[in-house]
Amino acid sequence: MDISVTLFGGLRHFLPAGSSFNKCTIGIDNEASLEDLLQKIPIPETKPYIVILNDEKVSLENYADIKVQQNDEVVLLPPIKGG
Length: 83
Hints:
Layout lengths: L1 E6 L15 E5 L6 H5 L11 E4 L2 E3 L14 E5 L6
Parallel strand pairs: 1-5
Antiparallel strand pairs: 1-2, 3-4, 3-5
């Protein structure tokens, strides 16, 4: 199945070749977890990001428990700093 993934900010540099601006589609097996999907994006472990699945923030400890579905939309955001 194919999952739509959008990366914002500096995370766009980790999109697969052939992606359009900040979006891509990633093929993944049925019954795959959010963690399985994220492992297909080569973001270094030292680069923090926030995961939004279908307009809801997902905590890191839940990545392995959440199964992705066809037509899910995943958004990865770098943390926002202010001052």
